[in-house]
Design brief:
72 residues, 2 helices, single chain, binds zinc ion, mainly alpha
């Protein structure tokens, strides 16, 4: 029928500003979350032999040196 509108767009019954979609408490919670979860840059250390530093060899060597220094 020609009288039947087939337009998918209908005017909203009531318009609300977008900020009303979240409450003030939600915004405060979001601030707390963002404060508690700051991005961190993780710097990986690589040993000269290609493994993660300290590699087992380095750990062993450090252990030997620390033990030797403690014995002096
Ligand atoms: Zn190594």
């Amino acid at each position: 029928m020609a009288d039947q509108p087939d337009s998918p767009q209908e005017p909203p019954a009531r318009q609300q500003p977008a900020r009303s979609l979240v409450s003030h408490q939600d915004v405060e919670d979001a601030d707390d979350i963002l404060f508690a979860h700051p991005p961190r840059v993780v710097r990986r250390w690589l040993c000269g032999c290609g493994a993660d530093y300290p590699c087992p060899d380095v750990r062993f060597a450090l252990l030997v040196k620390s033990t030797a220094e403690a014995g002096e």
